[in-house]
Design a protein that fits this description.
Helix 1 runs parallel beside helix 9 and helix 10 runs antiparallel to helix 11. This protein has 11 helices and 19 strands. It is globular, with a radius of gyration of 21 Å. By secondary structure, it is α/β, with parallel strands linked by helices. The protein has one domain: 3-Layer(bba) Sandwich (FAD/NAD(P)-binding domain). It starts with 9 loop residues before the first strand and ends with a helix. The structure holds flavin-adenine dinucleotide. The site of flavin-adenine dinucleotide has 31 residues, from helix 1, strand 2, strand 3, helix 8 and helix 9.
């Protein structure tokens, strides 16, 4: 049984995405009375899949959710690297995390959200949707909160897990700034599993990098990284379909199968990438940031969600260890800063190498060595 938290009694979590939900579960299970709010009135997430690396699986193990991911998503034995034309080059050098076989999981984001939301409902937490904060004020031992519906509250701790454009960050952390564009964009499609695909696949040697992650018995998502070109307006649905199909020209094996079998009915999305490790301090009095709000990264190591879950666990562990909340927040930042910096900086460096046309061995090596560093205990 996890140690009970005595350094705080109540917490407000602003933002119920992966990081906020992981924090809510970790704190509530250690006896904290948690209120969670999310700006989205329907508490949705978009329809992509998400890659759950071995390191992220270890983090989800702390939440007791690995069986759920295996049952409702997929856990496969590592990933293979292909030349874009379809020739198998080698397997990705993935680490054994905590002595387990190298594993790569995947799950559809809406399924993962639903599983985490069910845990939160089972814990009986208060969840209010369509709500954010408009003012946060530190007092000696509480934070006074004004909500967007003009109601007010008072908490021992406020956690800003409201993502890249965090309102909590803007309100309380003037020394931080918005994440920076990296020069690449990410295309994603959710589609049926190509018949030849067994485990995760990556395709190198083309100016566009492609990966495919299995997310269930018969579901995968494909991601593709391309140089980002400035546009006047967002791609509409037809442009997304036509452009993505065109981008996949010349790709073989499962990536070619997806190009030939994709339709306008499949979920397709394009998003320019941005990243930033925010400078410390990550807390201001009893207000603290977590997840993309403070360590936003790109998908190159498929680790952003894993880092958010790890941060949630570390925050709860430090709150359980410390005599007072401020001590715990310092210890949280100390344990997280260098590890998150490694992820953010390595991800940006891999993206830059792809933009420069680095060979498959170099890219594969950069990914493998970063994943090995991440396998160290967090
Ligand atoms: C293209 C792309 C692909 C990725 N692929 C992977 C991957 O394969 N594997 C992986 O591990 N990571 C991946 N990531 C990273 C991962 O998605 C994020 O790191 C992760 O979702 C961060 O969790 P979070 O809780 O901080 O933010 P989010 O999951 O974004 O959740 C934030 C929540 O806050 C809410 N919110 C926003 N503003 C407010 C507000 N003002 N008030 C209240 N609520 C608010 C939102 O509605 C949302 O529910 C990818 C990222 C990108 C961009």
């Amino acid at each position: 049984m996890d140690k009970k938290i005595e350094s705080i009694g109540t917490a407000l979590i602003v933002g119920g995405g992966i990081g906020g939900m992981a924090t809510a579960i970790s704190l509530a299970e250690r006896g904290v009375k948690v209120d969670l709010i999310d700006l989205d009135p329907e508490w949705r997430v978009y329809g992509a899949g998400i890659t759950i690396t071995g390191v992220t699986l270890r983090a989800y193990k702390h939440l007791g959710m690995v069986e759920d991911i295996a049952k409702h998503g997929a856990i496969t034995n590592g990933s293979s690297i292909f030349h874009f034309s379809g020739k198998h080059l080698r397997d990705l050098d993935e680490p054994a995390v905590d002595g387990e076989e190298p594993a790569t999981g995947g799950i559809m984001r809406p399924v993962l959200h639903h599983l985490m939301q069910e845990r939160i409902r089972a814990l009986g937490l208060s969840v209010q949707l369509g709500l954010t904060v408009t003012n946060l004020e530190n007092r000696e031992d509480k934070v006074d909160v004004v909500f967007s519906d003009e109601s007010t509250g008072s908490y021992d701790l406020v956690i800003g897990s409201d993502s890249v454009h965090s309102t909590v960050r803007k309100l309380c952390f003037p020394h931080m700034s918005e994440p920076k564009r990296t020069g690449q964009g990410c295309w994603r499609i959710s589609i049926e599993k190509p018949p030849m695909l067994e485990k995760g696949e990556m395709y190198f040697g083309h100016k566009y990098t492609v990966g495919i992650t299995r997310c269930g018995e018969n579901t995968v998502y494909l991601w593709m990284l391309t140089p980002h070109e400035r546009r006047e307006k967002h791609f509409d649905d037809e442009e997304l379909y036509v452009q993505m199909k065109e981008n996949l020209e010349g790709f073989g094996n499962s990536a070619g199968w997806i190009r030939d079998n994709m339709t306008r009915e499949h979920w397709i999305n394009y998003r320019p990438l941005a990243a930033k490790l925010q400078p410390g301090p990550w807390s201001n009095g009893r207000i603290v940031l977590l997840g993309d709000a403070v360590h936003a990264t790109t998908p190159h190591l498929a680790s952003g969600a894993g880092m958010a879950v790890e941060s949630a666990i570390v925050l709860a562990q430090e709150l359980a260890k410390a005599k007072n909340a401020l001590e715990a927040l310092n210890a949280y930042e100390e344990r997280r800063f260098d590890r998150c910096r490694d992820i953010v900086e390595s991800s940006i460096a891999i993206g830059a190498a792809q933009l420069e046309g680095a060979p498959p061995d170099q890219i594969g090596g950069m990914i493998g060595s970063a994943l090995h560093r991440l396998a160290a205990p967090f």
